[in-house]
Amino acid sequence: MKLTLLMTFLVIAGVGSVTLLSIQRERISFRADLEEQANAQLDSLSVAGSDLLYRLQLSGLQNLINSLSAKQTINTAWVYDSTGHLLVTKGTSSDYSVDLDPFGSKIVGSNDTVYEWQNAKLVAGKAVSLGRQIIGAFGIELSTASLETKLASLRDEGLSVALFASLVALIIAIGMSRTLTEPLRVLTTATQQIAQGDLSHTIAVTSNDEISVLARAFNAMTIRLQETVQGLQQRTHELQLSEIELRKSKEIAEAANYSKSAFLASMSHELRTPLNAVLGFASILHSGMVKDGAVLSPSQLELLKKIELNGRHLRDLINDVLDLAKIESGRMTVTITEDRPETLLNNTVDAMRSLAINKGLELNLVFLQDAPEVVLCDTRKLQQIVTNLIGNAIKFTAQGEVCVEVGASGLDYWQIAVRDTGIGIPEDAREHIFDKFQQVDTTDRREYEGTGLGLAIVKGLIETLQGTVKVQSALGNGSTFVVRLPQRLDRRGV
Amino acid sequence: MAGFSFENWQVLVVDDEPDNLMLLEYVLTFHNVCVTSTRSGEAALKLIKEHAYPLALVDIQMPRISGWDIVKRIRSDENPQIRCMNVIAVTALAMAGDEDRIIRSGFDGYIVKPIDAPTFAQTIQTILDRVQSRVSYSPSEKTLFQEPLTDRTDLIASNEA
After folding, report:
1. Final residue in a domain of this structure, among A119, A151, A183
2. Count of domains observed in chain A
3. Going residue by residue through chain A (494 aa), what tens digit of pLDDT does each one get?
4. A344 Cβ contact partners less than 8 Å away, ≥ 6 residues apart
């Protein structure tokens, strides 16, 4: 719209100035023409009137200038003497537009034709000379009316041309704005739509100019953008799909884990129930809680002991296998409480003392000076670990002592070392000692009864408590199990 | 057996497994405890309504009405005598977390199967002594009876014996 107005204005200004210029030029050329015409008239008057003027035949001069009236353009004429005094005039003095006498002297004093432009009139005068002597002068007044009409018509013409040109300019400007701004508007709309996310928008290319080049580039960009977005969408979709897949397999794994746990729980229950009757009744027989007071013979008692022993072994296997399964499935729950190692370990060691005494072994508990007073730990699991290690030490020690030593280990850790004077562990067996169903010498199984799962469970429990276990041993020189645990067990790490 | 004073105690024993029920009955009656036993949860609830037993030994995993249901009904009974009766779980549930669940659901304590007859008799004596002297169980003592029975040391001990 601005462009349209500007263009129209420019066209009007252009046509207007051209018209004005041509009017001015016309005026100048017309004046020159009129001056020439006046000059010619004056010349012919000089030729015709010089003799009359010389002889001062006033009637003749009067006739001469009167004859001029036939020529329309000459309004009036007059004759001067050699001094510039008026001799003869045509018409009355009121007709003259100049003060005639000063004009006369001006003419007489000039060699050339004198012109004086008045409003719509040209006054011209020329001296007449004979030889070198000025004998008088002629003056005429020409009308410029024809010029005025001519100029007026020229002005009107110019004006109408300007108007027409403006109209044409306006039409052209509108047309141009259509061809120029319309594609730009289309481009703007398309950009806005793309900005709003509508990538399906394309611009129709109709012309072959710079705008269409831009439109083509724009369309190409849109297509690229569309491809990119589609690629992204597809990628997102794929990601979502794989996420769903992942979640599904996670759910399946969790369900499997859950059913595994449920299976373990029900297995534990189902195995214990008949075992309860077996061991319970065996213990009734063994302890002589028989109502009729019947006493078993020594050989019967021997057999009963075997039933009990194997029943308990079965119970322990069940316990251990379930513990291990629980550790391995990561379903071991940790209950963190604040414990005093001194109290806790004294209780645990005391519970094992009778076992040691039965074998004629010493069982000692030593607290080093740097032993922590308070720790954050899972009481039940720690007891299980220590009980298991002490039980193991007693089991594999024929004579001497089992010593439990408690101290600090680094800044944030503490350690429990269970040392025995037993048979020890050969070097090649040391790395397998924490594996399942591993005992140092399988031929000695009868001698060292056990499930073979104890140390695997111990290791699992220690790892659940974010600790480590190491073994130092020399064959025949006893073993030392060193358990290293954090002083403050952190729930987040469990 | 000397030292046991079970006489005149009326104890309710509930277990759906006949051999296990018989085992508990056998040990208790051997020590002159009067035992009322039943294999069904429904019957147990009915018996509890009729008599105020000072102690009930209840199995947990039972068809239809479980030990969970029984203890829940006892703890929400309008009769304060029933509501406050001593209920001990005798169960083969011995997985980690079971203990917490059992104590939280209202049992006063629990004994894990398989049981050892002399240890079981000893445990019952302790419980009845407490009931008699009207010592109520504090939450930390509720697991009292679980420990000695799951202690593995008894295996090693018997092994050496």
Report:
1. A151
2. 2
3. 677 778 778 877 887 788 788 888 888 888 888 888 888 888 888 888 888 888 888 888 888 877 776 555 777 788 888 887 788 877 655 555 566 677 777 888 777 888 888 777 788 888 888 777 888 888 888 877 777 777 788 778 878 877 887 788 788 878 877 777 777 777 788 888 888 877 777 777 777 777 778 778 888 888 888 888 889 999 999 999 999 999 999 888 888 777 777 777 788 888 888 989 999 999 999 888 888 888 889 999 999 988 888 888 888 888 777 777 777 777 677 888 888 999 889 988 988 888 899 889 999 999 999 999 999 988 888 988 999 899 989 988 888 999 999 999 888 899 999 999 988 888 877 778 887 665 544 444 444 566 677 888 889 889 889 999 999 888 888 899 999 999 888 776 55
4. A379, A382, A383
Interface contact A289-B121, CB threshold 8 A = yes
The 3-class SS string of B21-76 reads HHHHHHHHHHCCCEEEEECCHHHHHHHHHHCCCCEEEECCCCCCCCHHHHHHHHHC
Task: Supply the pTM of this predicted model.
Answer: 0.50
- Four-point Cα dihedral A248, A249, A254, A258, nearest 10: 100
User: A73: domain CATH number?
Assistant: 3.30.450.20
Interface test with B, best of A260, A278, A284, A304 (most B CBs within 10 A): A284
Do the Cβ atoms of B118 and A281 come within 8 Å? no
Name the residue range of residue A461's domain.
333-493
Q: How many CB pairs under 8 A join A and B?
A: 119
Interchain pair A276, B114: CB under 8 A: yes
Q: Which residue type occupies A483?
A: V
From A261, which residue of chain B is nearest by alpha-carbon distance?
B95
Residue A462 falls inside a structural domain = yes
User: Nearest CB to A281: which of B23, B95, B151?
Assistant: B23
Which of A265, A283, A351 lies at the smallest CB-CB distance from B118?
A: A283
- Spacing of C-alpha B11 from chain mean position: 9
In a domain, A10, yes or no: yes
Given CB atoms, is B116 within the 8 Å cutoff of chain A?
A: yes
CATH code at position A391: 3.30.565.10
**Cβ atoms of A65 and A86 closer than 8 Å:** no
- Of A151, A176, A211, the residue that ends a domain is A151
Token pair for residue A137? 């002068």
Q: Is residue A296 part of a domain?
A: no
Residues of chain A with Cβ-Cβ distance to B97 below 8 Å are 333
Amino acid at A104: G
Domain membership flag for residue A394: yes
Q: Given an 8 Å threshold on Cβ–Cβ distance, is A280 in contact with B115?
A: yes
Q: What is the ipTM of this complex?
A: 0.74
